[in-house]
Amino acid sequence: MKQESGELTAAQSLDIIAAMIREAKSNIRSNYFFFLFWGWVVALANLGVFVLQKLAVEQPYLVWAITIPAWIYTLARMVRGRKTQRATTHFDRISRWLWMTFGVVIFTLVFFGFKINYQLNAVLLVVAAIPTVVSGVILKFRPLVAGGAVFWVCGVVNFLIPMEAQSLIGAIAIVCGYLIPGYKLKSKEG
Question: Counting CB atoms within 10 angstroms of each CB, which of 39, 61, 120, 129 has the fewest?
Answer without folding.
Answer: 61
